Amino acid sequence: MSGKTLRIAGITRSFPGRGRTPPTLALQPTDIAVPPGEFVAILGPSGCGKSTLLRIVAGLDQPTAGQVLLGGQAVTGPGPDRGMVFQSYTLFPWLTVERNIRYGLVERGLPEAEQRAIAARLIARTGLTGFENHWPRQLSGGMQQRCALARALANDPEILLLDEPFGALDHQTRELMQELLLEIWEDMSGPGAAGRRKTVLFVTHDIDEAVFLANRVLVMSARPGRIKADVPVPLPHPRDWTVKTTPGFAALKARLMAEIREEVRRAAAAAP
């Protein structure tokens, strides 16, 4: 499969202290290689450095040591080769759905006809047809995140970075969004697909979500974070909600739950 390999090489992150407060080590030396088209979930307890690691890959934060390489080129800041979706609703409130999705295309100077064609395709794919001219305040949380996903995909990034994007949604909407994301990712290299599967890094603290979505789950330790387990998810594609009822899913969930419980207890014991 064509595309660029992501390499996280010796990344550490320490935040300076204030006054008498000592520096906080958020990430221990971290090494990860993600081949093109892989869907990787990063799972860990709260405060373990998952989001910090994702922000460094996005170029929104700088590591204390180490580097991120995409296709052999060092990542030094944000770029169109990486699209990010946050947990909070980050649509521009002064732009309609269609204009939000086109925002990056406008910045890149694409012809308007091409912008509109790309936006129309993604609006249809994310189930937003009929809401093109709505403002973000007129949308439900799930619809806002569908729009944010479409905006991230519009620039055709090499890597899609998702930081607990469904964490603020109710349970039913969250499951529907998981299925939508997985369908879009699976369809990218399916029959008649125009492109290729995106490389995905998906931060979550939800074990079911990680197993359902990912090909591989990286488990992080309690702070200071490190990769303590690299667990493949050999469940077949395409997947739908019924995979959650299978023995294979239950076995993976049990293994990851044991890993996470240990780290949650460590984090609780270290809390002041």
From TrEMBL:
Q: Where in this chain does the record put each ABC transporter domain?
A: 6-247
Q: Keywords on this record?
A: ATP-binding, Nucleotide-binding, Transport
Please name the GO terms that the record assigns under molecular function. Answer: ATP binding
The reply to whether Nucleotide-binding figures as a keyword in the UniProt entry is yes
**Which superkingdom, per the lineage?**
Bacteria
* InterPro entries xref list: AAA+_ATPase, ABC_transporter-like_ATP-bd, ABC_transporter_ATP-bind, P-loop_NTPase
The record's listing under Gene3D superfamilies reads: P-loop containing nucleotide triphosphate hydrolases
**Does the keyword tRNA-binding belong to this entry?**
no
Its family remark reads:
Belongs to the ABC transporter superfamily.
Q: What is this protein called?
A: Sulfonate ABC transporter ATP-binding protein
Q: Which organism is it from?
A: Paracraurococcus ruber
